[in-house]
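COURSE: Structural Biology Practicum
ASSIGNMENT: Worksheet 4, Part C
STUDENT ID: 0417
INSTRUCTIONS: Below are two proteins. For each, the amino acid sequence is given first, followed by its structure token string. Answer the questions at the end about the second protein only.

PROTEIN I
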Amino acid sequence: MTRIGTSDLDVYPLLLGGNTFGWTSDPATSFAVLDSYVSAGGNFVDTSDSYTMPDKTDGDSETILGQWFQKRERRDDIVLATKVGLRADTFGLAPDNVARAAEASLARLNTDYIDIYYAHYDDAKTPLVETVAAFDALVQSGKVRHVGISNYSADRIAEWLTVCDDNGFAKPIALQPNYSLVARQNFEAGVRPLAQKFDLAVFPYWVLASGFLTGKYRTEADLEGAERGPFAGRFFSAEGLAVVAELDTIAQEHRVAIATVALAWTRQQPTIVAPLASARVPEQLGALLASVDLELSAFELDRLNSISSYDKK
């Protein structure tokens, strides 16, 4: 277990993403994924009030997770993170939206508290002081234990922290950015220095670049017809394939999956507490969980840093 910033939360160093629940994983399969993750020692689950199957009702992921909490009676064993801001009927981060969305999430999740509540995306139309005040009100009420920020620029994160200092509001403890071996620049150049300065725990998503860093997509033919092909295709280039090849070499040396190495590299970066990864079925969890015990050497980290540095140009 590892500690989240200055909080009292100890978490497993692999965050299980709930975006597949109700999308690519039906309820029974979602339960199986959760059961397997917890059996392996996991205690940290991330979702959002907007995660669902396309063209279905927002909140399916939260609903399935709430059903699992009720059925398994494991709520107090899990550090739960969810997000607000993208759901159709409570879009944006105006105070009334945040308050109503939190109540709805609590109901779907079958719980009376959320451990980390994220602002999912920046809402430039709402004065930041109003958004931060709304999150602080949830903390003061006990419905939310801690605040998190997802997908914000470094400047806006700094502004959020200033608003907290000026008004005595509860400060965020966590950041959730897009970060991987093929998407380094935005996080490393601007967001990570802030995380280091203010002791903010980082839980990056898209760590496997929509499956590209699992090694599944080596040719353009591999992308054709694949469910995540359009997303993984963004990284398909000579430089991206070189990163996959280096991951493959290191994976073979350790006799693990390519995804295991990609996750281990991310976990060993400064300010990262736990990378976020999702599993459609329990069988996919093995490679993800193995990353917790894989410690890459300084030489291996340097090899990966060097080959992936094209993203930083």
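PROTEIN II
(use this one for the questions)
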Amino acid sequence: MPIAVYVLGLAVFAQGTSEFMLSGLVSGIATDLDVPLSAAGLLTSAFAVGMVVGAPLMALSSRTWPRRRALLLFLAVFVAVHVVGALTPSYGVLLATRFVGALANAGFWAVALTTAVSMVPDRLKGRATAVVVGGVTIACVVGVPAGAVLGERWGWRSAFWAVAIVSLPAVLAVLRSIPGGRGTDTGAAPVPVRDELRALTGPRLRPVLLTMALVQGATFCTFSYLEPLLTRETGLGAGWVPVSLALFGAGSFAGVTVAGRFADARPVAVVATGMTALALGWAALALAAGRPALALALIPLLGMLAFGTGTALITRVLGLASGAPTLAGAFSTTAFNLGATVGPWAGGLALDAGFGYRAPVWVSALLMVLALFVAATTAKGRRSRAGERRPSAVQRSARGRL
């Protein structure tokens, strides 16, 4: 595996830490900037919206740039907005930096995914994708808890400084290890945007992108409300929350690693197995939430299944979207973050409706059932179309006589 792929994973680690670290900093931000907790919570929403909107926009704007230049620019903007965020006394400026930082993060993700798979042979594309996505899982295990500790000891601004500092080695590493060519690095003219969009919105890719959004929606629906589930339903103390988050992150890292090794050979089987297990697993967690030992055992297993399946789906999109070398990574990023936006919203609706703290987990199970329905319907439609195109025995016999 080229060292450049691991460099991209390092950069994604820093950016993933920024994306998720606010879950442990909102109280400090609200107090320091004299805003309500709900306003501090909007900082997370601003980042998610920036990721959804930014992935295709940034990929389009940078599609004719050399990849190294695009990655360096996105990283430089990401570092700069975190420095501004760490210094500003204004909530409005901080909100703007979260949105702009998300745009840069989305652009980096989109270019990084396509760059990683372009540098390896077909048999290693799944593993390269896993290395890049693995940066997010390591952020969940190490970065997010570390950001919470920094915020508790030295204030929320220290976490922003830490993200900026951790990103600097990635800037130097990208400068030294990423090829500087544009497009697919072959010197060929870029694929027209219309052709890329046609490939990505075709009947083969639309269901995969929708499935990816549903899988991620299920994941982040429960992940966002894991703290109240554990402390108010399972009966664990607050000290178990970071332990549980670390368990989920460790399972996620294991899932990404395993999926990277098997998704290349049997992507459909990995996705189908993972989705079925997730539907059963979220339902099992909802039923077992009152039993601490069983709940803690399920959390890393579900992290492994969720991110393993997500990695296999990204690999599937990049494999099917050979006609969209610029936008395939962008659409994958958008689908991922669309799920991360809609899932917590759906879980919040269930909580507000008074269905209890297990409700988001049941919503996750329901979203997985919906994802399985989309996948099964798509597979049935493909078999039906293939049957229509395949000549019958009578037709083949008639052609033989002619």
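ANSWER KEY EXCERPT:
Q1: The radius of gyration is 22 Å.
Q2: Confidence is low (pLDDT under 50) at residues 182-188.
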